[in-house]
């Protein structure tokens, strides 16, 4: 009788337990309505901030004709090169003004 209980526990109980928690894990991985609403709000805020940054950059460019926007790579690739180029540009501008 004890062997029968052990076999039932191993071949029926254990797979049922594993599948039960796998199903719960998969159903919990979806976005809820509140999550989607929060993502939409964040996307809207990011769009507004981008528009504000563009406006500020246009104002600075209008007030300072020599100002040049330095683009930043979101992946972080080549930022050092742009920094060197910016320093070179500043050095060249200093030489011109002398």
The separation of the N and C termini measures 99 Å
Pairing-aware structural class of the strands and helices?
A: mainly alpha
Number of helices: 3
**Global mean pLDDT:** 77
Taken as a percent bin, the fraction of beta residues is under 5%
Order of helices and strands: HHH
Feature tags:
98 residues, mainly alpha, 3 domains, 79% helix
In short:
It is built from three helices and no strands. With 98 residues, it is mainly α. The protein folds into three domains: 1-30; 32-67; 68-98.
Describe this structure in words.
With 98 residues, the protein is mainly alpha-helical. The protein folds into three domains: 30 residues; 36 residues; 31 residues. It is built from three helices and no strands. 0% of the residues are buried. About 7% of the residues have low confidence.
What topology does this entry show?
Elements (H helix, E strand, L loop, with lengths): L1 H27 L4 H31 L15 H19 L1
Keywords: Membrane, Transmembrane, Transmembrane helix
Pfam families: PspB
InterPro entries: Phageshock_PspB
